[in-house]
Specification:
This protein is an alpha+beta fold and 288 residues long. It has two domains: 149 residues, Bordetella uptake gene, domain 1 (D-Maltodextrin-Binding Protein, domain 2); 117 residues, D-Maltodextrin-Binding Protein, domain 2, CATH 3.40.190.10. It contains eleven helices and eight strands. Strands 1, 2, 3, 4, 5, 6, 7 and 8 form an eight-stranded mixed beta sheet that branches. α1 crosses α9 and α5 packs across α11.
Length: 288
């Protein structure tokens, strides 16, 4: 289950993971996109699914939506962590005809024109939302963020000129960058990434102190037998460690990054949760 529409990083990583799980488990693994409510709909479906290992979720840290939404029909305790799938930076892009040639141009304009720079966002709680909220805090600027139902519609608004800047996952926009319809200004990570050649990291681009990354990982419903969780983890670890899987992830600007164990993945989730919740609170975003 994926909580976002086709074309974005959640869908991209899920399909690679599904292929590798299918090969290792010897059964068909089907990706179902259940978009809506920032991923909450898919999360609720998996939280309530039978705890037998046959329904899993590909998602980021649940702390984001639990901080963002006033109410939800699930909690962190409703899931068993299996493995991280992939991690990577987001990309800051503008229309190819934009006068903004670098991050410093964006910051200068935003400071001189508070709220007049329209940011195409993939929706509250998404990777781009987290990245742009942290950017505003570090750079001392204020965007007017327009929320779309996923990265695909947000990208189309940027291409159409309805918005002026976009923070996006690499699979969503790098095809447009290579096709000459968008210009990549910077990654949202401190340093450059070999998976996205030719795009500088934030420090080299002119915004030291800014670093935002994201990941997707697999979850099963809570109560899934430990042996089943371990079997799924081993299949993910073997599959995502293959050179071919790593190469496929790299085409979308991401790094295959399976966890060493379900316990290691769970520890990572818990350690990161307070920071993500703080970014949401400081951004002022709330969804009723």
């Amino acid at each position: 289950m994926v909580g976002y529409p086709p074309g974005g990083s959640g869908d991209f990583t899920a399909r690679i993971a599904a292929d590798e799980l299918s090969k290792d488990l010897g059964v068909a693994v089907v990706v179902e996109n259940r978009a809506g409510a920032g991923g909450n709909i898919a999360a609720e479906v998996v939280a309530k699914a039978p705890a037998d290992g046959y329904t899993v979720l590909n998602a980021w840290n649940h702390a984001i939506n639990l901080a963002l939404y006033k109410t939800s029909n699930y909690s962190e305790k409703d899931f068993a962590a299996i493995s991280r799938v992939a991690s990577g930076p987001a990309v800051i892009v503008v229309n190819a005809t934009s006068p903004f040639m670098n991050v410093k141009d964006v910051i200068a304009y935003a400071k001189a024109n508070p709220g007049k720079l329209f940011n195409a966002s993939a929706g509250y709680g998404s990777t781009p939302h987290i990245a742009s909220a942290l950017f505003e805090s570090v750079a001392g600027v204020q965007f007017t963020s327009v929320q779309f139902k996923g990265g695909g519609p947000a990208a189309q608004s940027l291409i159409a000129g309805e918005t002026q800047v976009m923070f996006a996952t690499a699979p969503t926009v790098m095809g447009f960058v290579r096709g000459g319809r968008m210009r990549a200004l910077s990654l949202t990570t401190r340093d450059a990434s070999p998976a996205i050649p030719g795009v500088p990291g934030a420090e080299a681009a002119g915004l030291p102190g800014y670093h935002s990354t994201f990941w997707f990982g697999l979850y099963a419903p809570a109560g899934t037998p430990p042996a089943v969780v371990q079997r799924l983890h081993q299949a993910a670890l073997r599959g995502l460690s293959k050179a071919q899987a790593k190469e496929r992830m790299a085409t979308g600007g991401m790094d295959a990054a399976p966890s060493a164990s379900p316990e290691a993945f769970e520890a990572e989730i818990r350690a990161e949760a307070p920071t993500l919740a703080r970014i949401i609170r400081e951004s002022g975003a709330k969804v009723e």
